[in-house]
Every structure is written in structure tokens, then in C-alpha cells.
Fold Cyclic nucleotide-binding domain-containing protein.
Amino acid sequence: MPLIIDNLSKHITLTPQEQELFLSKTEIRQYKAKTILLNAGEVCKTSYFVNSGVLRSFNINDNIVEHVLSFACTGWWISDMYSLLSQKPENLFIQVLEDAEVVLLSKENQEMLYQEIPKLERFFRILTENSLVAHQERLMDNLSLTAEERFEKFCNKHHDLIQKVPQKQIASYLGVTPEFFSKMKSKMLRK
Amino acid sequence: MPLIIDNLSKHITLTPQEQELFLSKTEIRQYKAKTILLNAGEVCKTSYFVNSGVLRSFNINDNIVEHVLSFACTGWWISDMYSLLSQKPENLFIQVLEDAEVVLLSKENQEMLYQEIPKLERFFRILTENSLVAHQERLMDNLSLTAEERFEKFCNKHHDLIQKVPQKQIASYLGVTPEFFSKMKSKMLRK
DNA sequence: ATAATTTCTTAATCTACATTAAGTGCCTTT
DNA sequence: AAAGGCACTTAATGTAGATTAAGAAATTAT
């Protein structure tokens, strides 16, 4: 069974015909590491579901500093929600970090599927709810924890990622410079 | 027409009977400033919609420092999403900042309404999507902007709140101490 | 009105993290 | 195998914002 159907079944139950219909509206693609799937300034027209590999979303501010908004590995959805919903351009990039197989669902097809399989409203509501909760927690963590504490939490939650992505990306996700992250890490190891 | 029905109609269209049913599952209450609607450690069983006044959600970390997660004034929803969804206790408070009239929707009734008016799945999906986008932006702002820049953005977006809530709460929302906020503000005025 | 609390301000000192810069090791390309 | 580019480290110096403390102003309670 395709991973994405398995993912849907975590929150809703689809008939075989509905599964068929859903899959017919998606597209599978392979990408090499470093491929840019969405460029800053473009309007986002697609949601991405990761079958294998790792993606990230990030922006670049005036100072030419990158900030990682999120990572996505096997079984995770990723997109530029702001641009996807508003259909306006945003300063977000989506990029492949490790060679990946990705399922593409266009906004157009997603809306079409909402009409034909209203249960999907429920699925994406729950998916978005969970994402919101995670973002709220990360926000509060950024306000109240030190970089070290945030890193420890990250390790517990995303153990798999630590091996896979360059540590400067993790530093950026945590909101510190790669130099400080390196220092902090060696300090933590010494304990 | 009740404000909350007006709010629903921003994303979905309800028949008069559906409106009736929806309202019958809610409850209106008046609260005095400082009332605590949800205490840290409790399981959240209700979503709150503000008819008038101002509420806030916040947590308190080990150091006895408060951090404001969100404000809600007229026309806004507020709840403890983590606890409401998981039905586990969280360390979040919900409190009235300015005398308020609030519409209460219990989780139980909300689930019941999803069954009877599936369109509501759509409404809360969109509501949650918008909230997620706002949280993502705030996260990135916290990573890449100075406190001063964040305050300017806050002023543009929530002009109404600045008059209504004590400035130490705004400092907490922005992620700085009241002392630093005070200093920053007077520095900005001098320009 | 007066007392009591809470909020806001000012100022000195401190610290987590940023910036700059130089150097090391490891891939990748030719 | 050399050369170039990245990712990572180390270290000196700089700064945004925290902490502490004390007084002034504004609310709230009596």
C-alpha cells in the first residue's frame, strides 16, 4: 500500500475507489539533493508528501541569512502554507536535502478532491491542527528555553534527522549561528 | 445576527436551521477581568469565541516567568489547542484581560456538530490553516527580526490591543522583559 | 481620600549569543 | 593527485537583551 494512503488512514477511512481517485490526482517524482522545488517569490501551487529522503523549507532575510522553517522526511507533508492558501508569492524556499521520492498534490486537485471526498476536509483539518500545536510549542520553546535546551528537545524528537542533515541546518532551525552551535555541542559533549 | 454566525459565514454558508443548531450547542457567558478560564494542568474542554473584551493564553516556566502565547479580542477564537486535541493537561492558562463576553463551544458539542454539519470541518480547517500561517510567520520573525522590528510589526497588526493591554503583556508576547521593552519604547519615541 | 498593589521607568551590571576571522578536514570535480 | 568548495571548529571581540534593584506613576481596593 502506498505510504500516502497509509498516512491518510491515520485519520480517515477511504474506500478502495476513493483511494484510487486520490492517487490518480497525485504524481510521484524523484529529486536529487539540492534541487529547489519552490523558489522564494514564486506562488506555491503544490503540497509535497515525502516517500523517502529529506526536504526542508527556509527563507533568506535581508542579511542573506537563512532560517529553516521546517524539515520533512519519510511520511511528512511539507509546503508553503501561506503562499498555497493565499496564492500570493512568499519568500520561502523548499529544497531537497537528501535524494528524495516525493508525492505531489496540486492545490487545484486538492480542492477538487475536497468536493469529491469531503472526508478529506477532516484529514487536512487534523493534519493542520497537529502542525499548529507543534508550531505553538516551538514558539514557546524559543521564548522560554536556552539554545541548549532546545537542542536537547530536538534530539529527542528528531533523532533520525541529526545523522542526515548538515549541522548548520539544525543550528538554523534552532535559531543560532553555526559557530555558536559548534561551540555549544562540544561543550555538551565534554559533560 | 450574532457575531459568531457572522464569523462562520466568512468561510461557509449555513442554512437558518444549521445556524439555530449551532447556536443551541453554544453558551454565552460574561467574565470580569482577571478571571481564569483555564488553569495550567487542567484538561481543556472548550473553545472560546470573544464577543467583546480581551483574553490571553500564556504559560509559566520553571523560573516563574510568564510567556504570552496569544491574545484574543472581539471576533477571535482562543483555546489550548494541544490540550483540547489530545485531552491531556498542558501548562497553559487562559485568562480574561478586559471584561469580556465569551461564546463557549465544548469539545463534545464541536464533535457532535462535525457530524451534523460536515461543512464545519471546512470552517475549522480554514481557521486552523490561517492560525498556522500566522504562527509560522511569528516563528520566523522571532528568528530573524530584532525586538524593535517585531514591536513595529505588532503595532501595525494589532493596533487596537496596544491601548487595551498592559505593556508588560506585549513585552511577554514579543519575547522580551518588561524592563527592556520600556527602554526600547522610549528609545523609539525619541526618534 | 488614603492605602495597597500593580505597572512602568531608569540605570548599573551581566550573559547568551552574534560577528569576524583564521584555520582544518572532507568531499567533489577535473 | 591537485584544486576548489563546503562544512566544521576555535577564538577574540562585540552587542542585544537579561538581571537586579530602586523609585515613580498609575490602578485598585478600603
Summary: Residues 166-168, 178-179, 182-183, 186 of chain A lie near DNA strand D (CB under 10 Å from a C1'). Strands of chain A lie at 26-31, 36-38, 46-60, 66-73, 77-78, 92-106. Residues 3-116 of chain A form a domain with the Jelly Rolls fold (CATH 2.60.120.10). Chain A touches chain B at residues 59, 61, 65, 67, 69, 81-82, 85, 114, 118, 121-122, 124-125, 128-133, 135-140, 142-144, 175 (CB under 8 Å).
